[in-house]
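Checklist before submission:
- one chain only
- standard amino acids only
- sequence pasted in full

Submission:
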Amino acid sequence: MAGSTADPFNDVLLSLTGVTKVLMERDERVAHVDRARLLSVMEILKTDPRFSYEQCMDVCGVDWPDRTERFDVVYQLLSLTRNDRLRVIVTTDEEQLVPSVTPIWSGACWWEREVWDLFGVRFDGLVDHRRILTDYGFEGHPLRKDFPLTGHVEVRYDEDEKRVVYDRVALTQEFRQFDFLSPWEAVTTLPGDEKAIRKAGSSS
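Returned file contents:
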């Protein structure tokens, strides 16, 4: 175990089996938890009076493509009893399942579906892995940092078929030129400049 600070509450968190590190980041308490122990730790964090994190306010993902376990799954917990917040983080990759916390906080189902849809992280025990933010025929997971900016398919309405169709993305411009100038740098003359030029010429 690592990451203890002078805060005695952090040491109490570190005493839980499965908590690997506790630290303060910008005055926010963060606990890193072993993925296999996630459910047991979360159950204690909710029910033990020392913690009383009654609510799971949010679940989200973070992609670190250079890591072996590239994804962080981040849980934001709130204790109404103690007026305190805690961020819990577990790591995973494209294959390893993360235990679903829906048996503890049923409302987390919505957020776990978002993490699956946008990052491709699967949750063991989540009964509904339908996409929630992307379209039905969407391919891939758009918040992965290696996801192409153009996507894999494009959607359009076909006037001949009278329906919405999905096509593979085709970039019609073979070459593109960018000058990377801001509008202020790119504009060298402004409307009305010709009057100043004429006036300067007539005065000379």
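Reviewer check: The chain has a mean pLDDT of 86.
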